[in-house]
Amino acid sequence: MKHLIAILALAASPLAAQDFSEGSEARSWNLYAEVPAKFDAEVVDVLCTLTGDCPDDCGAGKRQLGLVRAADGVLVLPMKNSQPAFTGAAVELAPFCGQQVTVDGLMLDDPELGANNVYLVQTIQAAGADKIKANKWTKNWAKEHPEAKGKGPWFRRDPRIKEIIATEGYLGLGLEEDATFIAENF
Amino acid sequence: MRSLLLGALAALALPVTGYAAEGTRVQVTGEIIDTWCYYSGVMGSPDAVVGSAHHTCALWCSAGGIPVGLLAEDGTVYTILKVDNDAEAAGGDTLLRLAAHTVEADGMLYERDGLNYLVVSDVVSDQDITNVNHNDYGNVPSFSIPDPNK
What is the pLDDT of residues A91-104, one digit of tens each? Predict the structure, then answer.
């Protein structure tokens, strides 16, 4: 029995300490908790994985998607794509729903804040395909919002955001509070 | 002994792909936050990337499809996957309209690999923005309000 326990402990211990930075070409974002990480994974719909509520297309980029890492079965949550533009990862990963891919990017590791297994994906490579950059979000947004065409970043032109700010203000406390703050600070 | 061995070996069999987990019914009160700014520190300290100071950025990130969280009073962050019948947790309307609001949520909690996932069945109360912190931190990031003089 002692031998069995020792064997199981030896077999299990490398999983907890695996380093996925080997071979990573991820660019640093100078985030204090970032760790480069390249790994193979299956793209999954997180809601489906946890609850069994599973549309065929993983929600077509509207649900949060996950990466079930091949090496250890850990469900990694990709929060960001590679654009520094307040943009998530679901749109980038949705075309690969249910597929095995190799991703490269930055893991955030800050257990004190609760940041465990959360990820910024920079590149995605499906089996037999070229590696692509995870930077399609803004182009996708532009296609979906031809009426918002214009100068400046998408988040200044997004109709939903503009509508909320027009009624609730930048601070979310009403237009009067905004006016006071702007008068005092600009 | 044999069944113990088989069980142990089965537990070690890898990779373990997705599975439907058992959820726990919970009631949680907290602020609807932008998880990327909160976890990454890219815009400042955790206290600065919440509340009225960060309302506009929270809208940007929510509309941009970044996971939305509920920051509970005890500091636990719950990643929200669904609210009522709206499973569009990546840029959907329901979560966008709740950005920076304090809410009381009733739902199912699923814990997986160090993260807390929340499927909200009912927003019991929406208290709007209660964390008024812009006088302490300004607007975060500073460009979230366009300079009217430019």
Answer: 999 999 999 999 99
pTM attached to this predicted model:
0.90
Are A8 and B8 in contact (CB < 8 Å)?
A: yes
Contacts of A53 in chain B (CB under 8 A): 82, 87
Do A40 and A77 fall within a single domain?
yes
Query: Is A75 found in the same domain as A46?
Result: yes
* Interface probe, candidates A50, A53, A113, A175, chain B, greatest B C-beta count within 10 A: A50
If one counts every other C-beta atom within 10 angstroms of the C-beta of residue A85, the result is: 16
Task: For residues A94 and A47, state if they share a domain.
Answer: yes
Which of B20, B35, B91 is closest, CB to CB, to A52?
B20
- Residue-range definition of the domain harbouring residue A165: 145-185
Per-residue model confidence as pLDDT tens digits over B27-82:
999 999 999 999 999 999 999 999 999 999 999 999 999 999 999 999 999 999 99
Are the Cβ atoms of A186 and B149 closer than 8 angstroms?
yes
The answer on A94 and A179 residing in a single domain is no
Look at residues A178, A158, A160, A159 and name the one whose alpha carbon lies nearest to residue A168.
Answer: A178
Q: Is A11 among the domain residues?
A: no
Tell me which DSSP letter residue A84 carries.
T
Complex confidence, ipTM: 0.91
